[in-house]
Amino acid sequence: MEASELLGPGLVERLEQLATCPLCGGPFEDPVLLACEHSFCRACLARRWGTPPATGPETPPTACPCCGLPCPRRSLRSNVRLAVEVRISRGLREKLAEPGAHAGKRRGGRIPTMGCLDPQGEDMKMTWRRFDAPTPKASNSEDELPEDYPVVKNMLHRLTADLTLDPGTAHRRLLVSEDRRSVRLAPPGTPAPPDGPARFDQLPAVLGAQGFGAGRHCWEVETADAASRGDSSGEDEDDGESLYALGAAGESVRRKGRVGLCPAGAVWAVEGRGGRLWALTAPEPTPLGGARPPPRRIRVDLDWERGRVAFYDGRSLDLLFAFQTPGPLGERVFPLLCTRDARAQLRIVPAEG
Asked: What is the three-class DSSP state of 261?
């Protein structure tokens, strides 16, 4: 087995996502952590925010380039942990790129230790040593990584944005769970909340509370059995109505009236309908996956600068479909969940499952 297959190309690519600054698109250099938990190169953030005035009672307000939350300059702190993980990712990529590197030959069936990178400090050395463990089988799923890889698994888990839903955007017929991570149709007789400018009034949808205006982000959505397998009954089975849709929507998506469920309407999504999965393309939806039922877990991968929104099987990480725009998406983008059926509950779940 080639060394580049030890963790699988999908995992290596996702590790590199963690090592990439969302502003410059390159590896983190001297990463800093904001109060909202997003990280950037110190120099990149300084260029984005500009130099504060030398005089004056107050400095101009500053906000996170990713989520837009206010983040005072004084809240900045060095992200030492991320700096270590960046070096791990870089060293792992270099080792896996070595020509002729075979598991079980030159390295005795073990992933090369990162000690050769000459890290500073005993804590770093202990981190490197965690990679000097028996070689796992090739895999594209972190679920299959052995417990000897806690650092890698932790890095992969942090790729999934810690998302919640915004009840203020939810259609009045939808019920958002108390933890704000799942949504379903409200039972009959449930009091409807008051309408508001941010609330969808026709599309039974809800947006995520966190929006992204830079960088790469991913999240996973789990669908209920009836929705994902299409095992509905009665007229629901015959009319081919969409049971659910999930993906991403731009901040400009219409909240009132008919919503265009396609990229022209600032929506990049797939839907479960008739026991199949469809990409919401224009002028007609694109069927996906042949006659196979939709996956129970679907991963949404947003690359803001590249203008790409991709969907993967949450278990196998097989690509299902990708929307591609000519350039950056141009506005903040939010997770989007939509359900039209009482059985089609949607829930945001951790990537590790």
From this structure: coil
Tally of CB atoms within 10 A around 214: 21
In whole angstroms, what is the distance from residue 310 CA to residue 48 CA? 28
**Backbone φ and ψ of 337, nearest 5°:** -125, 135
Helix (H, G, I), strand (E, B) or coil at 287: strand
**Distance of alpha carbon 101 from alpha carbon 3, whole angstroms:** 5
4 to each of 85, 105, 107, 158, how far by Cα in Å? Answer: 19, 14, 13, 22
Distance CA(122)–CA(84), nearest Å, equals 12
Amino acid at site 329: L
pLDDT for res 126: 43
pLDDT value of residue 277: 93
Any bridge partners for residue 338, and if so which? Answer: 205, 245
Overall pTM > 0.85: no
In this structure, what is the dihedral angle of CA atoms 164, 198, 339, 288, given to the nearest 10 degrees? -90
pLDDT-flagged residues of the chain (< 50): 1-6, 101-149, 156-158, 225-239, 352-353
pLDDT at 173: 94
Q: 89, 16 in Cβ contact below 8 A?
A: yes
Reported as a single tens digit per residue, the pLDDT across 59-85 is 677 888 887 788 888 888 888 778 877
Distance of alpha carbon 201 from alpha carbon 198, whole angstroms? 9
Evaluate the omega torsion of the peptide bond into residue 283 and state whether it is cis, within 30 degrees of 0.
yes
Question: What string of DSSP letters covers 192-256?
Answer: PPPP-TTS-SSS-EEEBS--BSSSEEEEEEEE-HHHHHT---THHHHH--EEEEEEEEETT---S
Residue 163: partners with Cβ closer than 8 Å, 6 or more residues away: 181, 208, 209, 210, 219, 335, 348
What are the chain's domains?
3-159 (3.30.40.10), 167-349 (2.60.120.920)
What is d(CA 125, CA 117) in angstroms, rounded to the nearest whole number?
9
User: Strand pairing of 308-313 and 174-176?
Assistant: unpaired
